Amino acid sequence: MEIRRATADDLAAIVAIYNHYVMHSFATFDETPVSVEDRQSWFDTFGSNGPYRLVVADDGEVQGYACSSPFRPHGAFAETVELSIYLAPPWTGRGLGRMLYETLIDDLALEQVHRLVAGIALPNDASVELHRRCGFVDVGVFDEYATKRGRYFSSVWMQRALRTSDD
Hints:
The protein is of the alpha+beta class. It has four helices and seven strands, in the order E-H-H-E-E-E-H-E-H-E-E. The chain is 26% helix and 34% strand. Helix 3 links the parallel strand 4 (80-87) and strand 5 (115-122).
């Protein structure tokens, strides 16, 4: 399995993986599938350097992806990025998520990034455990703050320091 920077050729596979979670889980609060055209502007925000990256796991076809995105648009959050990860269903629980995150986090450690954050819709024990194994700690729960398909959901928020204020 190769972990590499995503290219435009990967976008259709990324969208297919994401849409699986739109339709079959609560890992994302989107309720309708997205198209490649819908996700093009999202894809265009990622680069080969800087704080916003997109990496894929490729074994001949894309089996998962991880990305770092702006946490909030305000300049005060310029050194904080939000991480997301999605895997093709056959690849969950097989160590692929950790491989993706380790590559992404290693890349981000070379950038001006101070904190990594992640919000995980509950329940999702596997994702919470993945984040803990990758050095994230719990910082709080937003209780029943979102709805999907008529059901309320909570999310645990986690963070990982890449630098201290002394760095």
